[in-house]
Amino acid sequence: MIMVKKNLTTDDGLLSLLSGSDDEALFAEARRIREEIYGDAVYLRGLIEFTNYCKNNCCYCGIRAGNAKLPRYRLDKETILDRCRLGYSLGFMTFVLQGGEDPYFDGPKGDDRLCDIVSAIHDEFPDCAITLSVGERSRESYKRLRDAGARRYLLRQEAASAELYRRLHPAEMLPENRLRCLYDLKDLGYQVGAGLMVGVPGQSLEHLLEDLKFMQKLQPDMIGIGPYLQHADTPLGKLEDSAEQRRDRLQLTLRLLAILRLLFPYALIPSTTALASIDPAGRTLGLRAGANVVMPNLSPATVRDKYTIYENKLSSGAEAAEQKLALEQIVSGAGYQIVSDIGDVKRG
Length: 348
Hints:
This protein is an alpha/beta fold. Helix content is 43%, strand content 12%.
């Protein structure tokens, strides 16, 4: 444990932990810190993927604008409210509205539409938290959404390295704008979530170190990471991807998750669907590496298979909000318990 703590303080030490120098000690220390602060509580977030339209052409994402094979959908306000009502009846106290950067919600009129949805949720469920994950927007748009009732925002930096960021995104998506968005959100009083994909082609351990340094500057309230998973209808989906590579990405993700718990002891960190998609035990492994949030899917069953940011994405069984009991059993098996609570960040 002493060596793990020492390695957190230097670049070489962090690179050693990322390379797998002592996984057993790393995971044990992450669990100890997580339980010291949050006990055995795992917080529940209801994920509503309300639109799979996106104007961007990111190289890794299955809902990219250039994917003509994907059937598109957009949920209306009443459908979203119905999903919130279902979630509330199941004990959900946080709703996460996630979508592509849908042109329908762009600009002043788009802000009007999205603010109308957010305020309707806030009015009907004033005791719940509303989290948004809808990409890059103007500062004024973020302010309007905050005023409408949103209190949390998830926006992964994806790559703190400008060079890697540019390789993963179209030319019009600038790394400096992504960082501007994150700092605008923080300045406006949101609880901010950052994060990245782990093991994306071209990413090195040095890139991950750069991400850790960036997040130490940002000090996010939430950190979402998951292993990179391919989608065939993307440029990166054409590359070779073996079972061994996927297993290596899973293990690297778990290491990074544990390191994040130690560097950001108070952060809210989900054990993601991507972990469960890459390994049936992935959700449990994430919780045992320091995660303290789960985000089952509240979207209508008719659209869940259309929000395919990667292939073979789980949206049934324990990943479906309606199967809360199955999820509770997984969490219990990892030694924790789901709580019906907004689950704000605990400050030191």
